[in-house]
């Protein structure tokens, strides 16, 4: 990740209810560089890293 202190969507620090798409100037151009999509939700890349770790190292505890 290149950006960890602000989010990709909206202003990056606070969820303002902006529509986050390619037409909004506040939306980043590459979400894979960010940990968070908005002020609360992780990006797809972050979710994939977490879920891959959970499947490989934690799921077996419950099986």
UniProtKB/TrEMBL annotation:
InterPro entries: GDSL_lipolytic_enzyme (IPR050592), SGNH_hydro_sf (IPR036514)
Protein name, entry field: GDSL esterase/lipase
The organism's taxonomic lineage, starting at the top: Eukaryota, Viridiplantae, Streptophyta, Embryophyta, Tracheophyta
